């Protein structure tokens, strides 16, 4: 039957007062950096920090009394899991959530905190399917699918409705795609409201499942990705036709671009996003010529990122743009060498974060040693200034990268 624009408007009525109408704001710093006018839809500020709260609510509202009594089941890498668990607790419905075994601890803990039973199984969503089917047969549970469900897609589509109500003069929409529930719904309502609008989906290079499906090609994907929320191997049967009909193109981004986007949202907009949530910003970064000078609406679809992973990304981004550097300095093993090094770095305005005085683990004469200094700088030119000053002080210096082991 498919999902219509009117279905999405009806879903918006059901959701009124039951989910947050999240902000749609302009990002001046991102706009300046990316060369286009960037408006971000902050679904990372939604209940359970993701757009999934919309579709889960609409789907669960349609359950009959027997289904509510037996309970619901969902398979999810985290965001849909939390949404189903959150609404199930509010509605008094038992909930079982099957999650991939490598799901970040923060998402597992949050899901359990809503009272759901969590089952960890497989390495991705598709490997969870057998477990889900077995539990449905054993307990009579009703599946709330994360994307291949018309009511879920109706709820997700309300994101696009709000975006175009709040900013009706957008030139383009950029939306992350996993199974396609969000993009299927958004593209349906957007085509109805603005037939001339350019609509782009975003997937990772490791999981281009929807892009391949639309092209009629064999789906081959897999591997580790920062954007586990859109790491889906099989597109939805409900969502694929809507995306084929309404989406202009699906863009692919790599892991480095995703890392940059997560860091840029923190530093330039003070927005916490997971990898999948930042995929739209990664696309603007990866394809600047496509978006140059345009008004672009980007869905930041989720903010559930593991704190340790976020810290690692921020540090890696600082290293990649030269704000944190590792220098290896050859010295003679005698008093005063370390003081001379720190004086040189301080004279240039560098900040020493860590310093390692290595004598034992390098193939050097006994009277020589090496200093590894981790320093905070203003950027690549500042690093060069510090290195030049150390060399003027007669030290042998080289900058290390992640590939250096010795």
From TrEMBL:
Pfam family, any one: PALP
Domain ACT: 326-405
Sorted UniProt keywords: Amino-acid biosynthesis, Branched-chain amino acid biosynthesis, Isoleucine biosynthesis, Lyase, Pyridoxal phosphate
InterPro entries hit by this protein: ACT-like_dom_sf, ACT_dom, ACT_ThrD-II-like, Ser/Thr_Dehydratase, Ser/Thr_deHydtase_PyrdxlP-BS, Thr_deHydtase_catblc, TrpB-like_PALP, TrpB-like_PALP_sf
Involved pathway(s): Amino-acid biosynthesis; L-isoleucine biosynthesis; 2-oxobutanoate from L-threonine: step 1/1
EC number: 4.3.1.17, 4.3.1.19
Annotated GO biological process: isoleucine biosynthetic process; L-serine catabolic process; L-threonine catabolic process
EC category name: lyase
Reactions performed catalytically: L-serine = pyruvate + NH4(+)
Cofactor field: pyridoxal 5'-phosphate
One term of GO molecular function: threonine deaminase activity
Family membership: Belongs to the serine/threonine dehydratase family.
Its job: Catalyzes the anaerobic formation of alpha-ketobutyrate and ammonia from threonine in a two-step reaction. The first step involved a dehydration of threonine and a production of enamine intermediates (aminocrotonate), which tautomerizes to its imine form (iminobutyrate). Both intermediates are unstable and short-lived. The second step is the nonenzymatic hydrolysis of the enamine/imine intermediates to form 2-ketobutyrate and free ammonia. In the low water environment of the cell, the second step is accelerated by RidA.
Name of the featured protein: L-serine dehydratase
Organism: Puniceispirillum marinum (strain IMCC1322)
């Amino acid at each position: 039957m498919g999902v219509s624009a009117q279905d999405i408007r009806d879903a918006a009525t059901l959701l009124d007062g039951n989910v947050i109408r999240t902000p749609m704001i302009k990002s001046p710093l991102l706009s300046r950096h990316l060369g286009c006018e960037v408006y971000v839809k902050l679904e990372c500020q939604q209940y359970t920090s993701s757009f999934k709260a919309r579709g889960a609510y609409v789907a669960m509202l349609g359950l009959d009394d027997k289904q509510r009594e037996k309970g619901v089941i969902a398979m999810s890498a985290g965001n849909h899991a939390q949404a189903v668990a959150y609404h199930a607790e509010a509605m008094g419905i038992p909930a079982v959530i099957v999650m991939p075994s490598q799901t970040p601890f923060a998402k597992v803990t949050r899901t359990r905190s809503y009272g759901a039973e969590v089952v960890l199984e497989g390495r991705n969503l598709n490997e969870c399917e057998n477990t889900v089917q077995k539990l449905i047969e054993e307990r009579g549970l009703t599946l709330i699918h994360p994307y291949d469900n018309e009511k879920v897609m109706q709820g997700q589509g309300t994101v696009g409705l709000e975006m175009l109500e709040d900013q009706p003069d957008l030139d383009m929409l950029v939306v992350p795609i996993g199974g396609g529930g969000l993009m299927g719904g958004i593209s349906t309502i957007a085509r109805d409201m603005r037939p001339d609008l350019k609509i782009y989906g975003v997937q990772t290079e490791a999981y281009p499942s929807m892009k391949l499906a639309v092209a009629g090609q064999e789906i081959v994907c897999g591997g580790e990705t920062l954007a586990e929320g859109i790491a889906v191997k099989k597109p939805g049967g409900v969502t694929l036709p809507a995306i084929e009909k309404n989406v202009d193109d699906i863009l692919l981004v790599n892991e480095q671009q995703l890392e940059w986007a997560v860091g840029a949202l923190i530093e330039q907009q003070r927005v916490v996003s997971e990898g999948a949530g930042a995929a739209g910003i990664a696309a603007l970064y990866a394809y600047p010529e496509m978006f140059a000078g345009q008004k672009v609406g980007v869905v930041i679809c989720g903010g559930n990122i593991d704190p340790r992973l976020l810290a690692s990304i921020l540090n890696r981004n600082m290293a990649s743009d030269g704000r944190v550097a590792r220098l290896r300095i050859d010295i003679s093993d005698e008093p005063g060498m370390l003081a001379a090094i720190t004086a040189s770095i301080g004279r240039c305005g560098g900040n020493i974060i860590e310093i390692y005085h290595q004598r034992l683990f390098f193939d050097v004469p006994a009277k020589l040693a090496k200093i590894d200094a981790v320093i905070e700088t203003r950027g690549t030119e500042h690093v060069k200034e510090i290195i030049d000053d150390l060399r003027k002080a007669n030290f042998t210096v080289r900058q290390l990268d992640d590939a250096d082991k010795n």
